[in-house]
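Hey team,

Filing this mostly as a record. A colleague (T.K.) asked me to run one chain through the structure pipeline before their review meeting, and I want the input and output archived in the tracker in case anyone asks later how it was produced. No errors, nothing strange. Just documentation.

Input sequence:
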Amino acid sequence: MGKNLEGATITVMRGNEQVDLLNTNAGGRFIVNLELNSAYTIQYTKKGSFSKSVDFDTKVPKELEGQIFSLKYKIDLIPNPDNAEEPEALQKAVAKYTFSEMYEDFTYDPNYTTARKVENEKIKQEVKVQIEKQRQEEAKVSAKVRADSLARVNELKAEQAKLLAEETK
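Output structure:
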């Protein structure tokens, strides 16, 4: 999964029913078991990031219902710099997995995933710009606070010098 997913919460939904809730480990990994012949949505959430989800349709042919399938994939979360409202594009699943008779295994829909990837890249770029603007604003505020503080220190020193000058008269 990746370091970006470290500390994320994984919610497994079957329809509107939550069937599992777990956290990723230090490497951002997790294991979840899905029953065959059901439809699931796995949601990934992490404080300071936009959430994402992946859809799984676990329907398989009758003759493969006793088989155990294993699937690994990677997902990254996009930082949410200001706890902004989640973009509408991220409310859609980023990938959809179904059983492929050709491969006799689960695979994702490449056309759907590519379309979501394009949307996600656009959002990532917008977030980078937003983070840079935020960093620049914070730097301006910090510089102003330092300048104001230095000006106040200089004012106090001038007042102190004036008082000392009056005392020595």
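Quick notes for T.K.: The chain has a mean pLDDT of 88. The first strand starts at residue 9 and ends at 14.
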